Amino acid sequence: MTANVDADSVEPLVRKTAAWAWRLLVILLAAVALLWVVSKLEVIVVPVLLALMLSALLLPGVDWLDRHGLPRGGAVSLVLFSGFAVLGGILAFVVLQFIDGAPDLVEQVSRSIDSTRRWLVNGPLHLRNEQIDSAGNAAIQALHNNQAKLTSGAISTAATVTELVTAAVLVLFTLIFFLYGGRNIWEYVIKIFPAGVRNRVHEAGIAGYGSLIGYVRATFLVALTDAAGVGTGLAIMGVPLALPLASVVFLGAFIPLIGALVSGLVAVVVALLAKGIVYALLTLGLLILINQLEAHILQPLVMGRAVSIHPLGVVLAITTGGVLAGIVGALLAVPTVAFLNNAIQVLLARDPEAEAEKQAEDDDDKAIIRAKPDHPQDESG
């Protein structure tokens, strides 16, 4: 009785707010716990997610070969070897181009430094050679003073390389199994869910993976277009290392909206050192133009309905992923949101069969109620 009195003394709005608050706190606590577990297993989780993205890119080719009579294992091997051959050829070509263009770049940078030195001496600043030499010596002395930090950084870099090799091997093995028997793996995974919701979870996974395939295809085409535009523009302007810089833009464009622009800043720096401020500004304008074309034409046209995420959601996802996991988080944020967006829509959608059964039960109940007499009489009467 006392409990009912106490409950009645609290405003309904306060009771509803409290009920929502503790439920939201539980959800937030679960999300924090999940992120903590993922951070502890980052060496495993990140390669698996990368393998999942790569499988979304390569799986249609494997399925096509499988449908045309090639054994599944042979189709996986052919697609992987072809992908490695193309990627290796591109990397080798880029490295050779960089080696061939590096001497020219060094010469142009040396000329730029000499012209900058002359401008500092003969220009409006009227600096003396002794001041310029003193600034250079100070920079060299700073490097010597921080030699220990640089050495420790090299050691940590070696450890990072080891982790990268380990992650690459894990990505390769996971990708092979995803391409060869990914559907069987998914059918095994959904067995952990209750039998009543397995079909819905299965459909949600298929929908989410379909959106992931659409995202990876569209991003690949957009990145290729960005790289072609930047490389062509740099080649027309005569900026050295145009092809390697275009390759950097291609890799950066896998982070939507901002990736191509941020990675293209390397091209701006190279243009500034090699050709001067005018060409650097032209390169920056080219990057902004390509970024606008990507945001307003390429992204909506190529992705279409496969990934229906508002641009604000994309920006927030990239920012959150970058804060939580750096470059890898920014890379995986948007495909993760795309997957969850379609999967959750399927999970929350109404089941037509369940709605029909519920409607039939309601009709039966109403029929039973109508069949009962309003004033039953005593049989003995």
Automatic annotation (TrEMBL):
Query: Superkingdom of this entry's organism?
Result: Bacteria
Keywords from the named record: Cell membrane, Membrane, Transmembrane, Transmembrane helix, Transport
Ranges that cross the membrane: 20-38, 44-65, 77-99, 164-182, 220-243, 249-270, 277-293, 313-340
* InterPro entries, per the entry: AI-2E-like
State where the protein is found.
Cell membrane
Topological relation to the membrane, as annotated: Multi-pass membrane protein
For bias kind Basic and acidic residues, which ranges apply?
366-381
- Can you list the GO cellular component terms from the UniProt entry? plasma membrane
PANTHER family hit by this protein: PERMEASE PERM-RELATED, TRANSMEMBRANE PROTEIN
The entry assigns this protein to a family as follows:
Belongs to the autoinducer-2 exporter (AI-2E) (TC 2.A.86) family.
Report the protein name in the record: Predicted PurR-regulated permease PerM
| Originating organism | Mycobacterium rhizamassiliense
At the highest ranks, the source species' classification is: Bacteria, Bacillati, Actinomycetota, Actinomycetes, Mycobacteriales
